[in-house]
Amino acid sequence: MTNSLMIFEGSELEILTKEDVNFEFEGTVLFNGKQVCEILEYNINNYAREITKYCDEENVQVIIKERLSSKMEESLKLNPNIITLGQRGTKFINEDGVFDLIYNSKMPKAKEFRKQVRKIVKAIQQTGKYDSIEEKIKLIQDEKERELSLGLYSLQQALKVNPSDYSLSILVNQKDQELKLYKQEKQLEQIQNGIEELDSKIKKATVLREGDKSAKNIAKYFKVYSKNNKPHNQFADKIAKELGFYINPIGNAGYQDKYISINLTNIGGTTVSEIKYSREALELMKEYIRTYGLQVKAQYGKRGLNKGKIIKAEMIFKNGEHIFINENTYNIYSTRSIVSYDIKGI
Fold first, then answer.
1. What gap in Å lies between CA 312 and CA 317, rounded to an integer?
2. Residue 117 and residue 102: Cα distance in Å, rounded?
3. Which contiguous run of DSSP H or E holds residue 322?
4. Half-sphere exposure of 262 (CA within 13 A, CB side)
5. Phi/psi class of residue 193: alpha, beta or left (left: φ > 0; alpha: ψ in -120 to 50)?
6. What's residue 346's pLDDT?
7. At what angle do helices 143-161 and 166-204 cross, to 10 degrees?
8. CA 193 – CA 201 distance, rounded (Å)
9. Does 147 lie in the same domain as 122?
C-alpha cells in the first residue's frame, strides 16, 4: 500500500484495495464510509445509520486492525495516519455502496464524485492499486519533469519501506537534486523567453518622435509643481483633455498622431504605457494658457502659526477636475501674469 487517499475537491477519502486486507470482499475497492458521507453531505454524526439505510449489507465492511494485511500493518508502523480506524473499527463500503449513497444524495457535486470513483475503480482493476500522488504527477505536461518526478516518488516510496537503506537514501537525494536543477533551468529559460517577448512587444509598440515630451517635462516647462514640490505628472493630461487630444495610454501602446505618441516603458521593473506630447501639442497648451489662464484656488489658515498662510492650493480645470499644487505654482497663476517659458534643457 503506497497511498490510501483519494482527493476530491480538497477532501481526503481513504481507500483500501484487496491487497490491503486479509479477507475477501465484494467489488474492487473499499472506501471510508464516514468520509464518503461527509463529501456527499449526509448527517455525519449518524453516518453509520445513513450507510445502513442506503447500502446493502454485503457492500459494507467494518475494518479493524486485525483485518488488515501484514503489508498494510507494516505501512501503519511507518505511518500511523495512513488510515483511520476507530476503537470499534470503521465502516468501509465498496463501490456499489458508494454508488447507492451517490444515487440518494441531493448534492450537485455527487455526479462529479461518481466519475472520480469510477476512475479509481478502473485504475485499481487495471493495476491493482491507486496512488493519488502518482496520478497527479502523471498530469505534468513536461515529459522530462514528469519522468524525473515519477522516478523520485518511486524511490521515496521504496525508502519508506526500507528507511535504513543508505544506498537508497543517496539515490533519493541525487534524483531530488536532478529534479530541482531541471526545474531551475526551465524557470530561467521561461524568464529569458519572457524578457525576449517583452522586448519584442516594446519594440513593436515604440514610436519615437524627436521633441516629444513626457508629462513630467511638460509640467516643468509650465512650472506646475505638486504640493510635494515635484513636477505634476497629471497636469499635461488635464490640459490635453481640455484641448481634446488626450487618449488613455493603457492598451494603446504604439499609437501616434500629430499631438501625442504612446510607448511602452519600464518604470520600477513594471512595463507601462506612457504618453508623450509633441511640439505642436506644446504650442497649443501655451496658447491656451496665454488666452484663458489657469484657475487656481487657495485655502488659508485662520489661526495659530498657519494664520494667513496657504495650507492648501489647487488648480481647477473646466471639466471640474483638479490637481493639488504647491504655493509657488499658485502664486504664478493666481496673478494671471505672462509666464516666461524657457525650453532650454528640457
1. 17
2. 10
3. strand 322-325
4. 17
5. alpha
6. 36
7. 160
8. 12
9. no
pTM over 0.90: no
Distance from C-alpha of 331 to C-alpha of 327, rounded to nearest angstrom:
6
Provide the grid cell at 253. 501602446
Name the pLDDT band for 51 (thresholds 50, 70, 90): very high
Written as one letter, the residue type at 97 is: G
Q: In this structure, is residue 24 part of a structural domain?
A: yes
Chain segment 143-162, per-residue pLDDT in tens? 888 888 878 877 877 777 67
Residue 58 CA to residue 274 CA, distance in Å, equals 72
Query: Is 140 within 8 Å of 149 (Cβ atoms)?
Result: yes
* For residue 343, pLDDT beyond 50: no
Answer yes or no: do 87 and 17 share one domain: yes
269: left (phi over 0), alpha (psi -120 to 50) or beta: left
Among 102, 131, 160, residue at a domain's last position: 131
The position carrying cell 506646475 is 224
Residue type, 133: I
Contact 31, 15 (CB under 8 A): yes
DSSP class per residue in 323-340: EEE-HHHHHHHHTTPPPP
pLDDT at 66 over 70: yes
- Maximum C-alpha span of the chain: 101
Residue-wise pLDDT tens digits, 103-113: 998 888 888 88
Residues 101 and 47 in one domain: yes
pLDDT in tens, 194-247: 766 666 655 555 566 788 899 999 999 999 999 999 999 999 999 999 999 999
Range of the domain at 278: 213-334
Pick the last residue of a domain from 182, 204, 226: 204
Which whole-number Å values give the CA distances from 159 to 9, 81, 133, 287, in the listed order? 30, 18, 16, 81
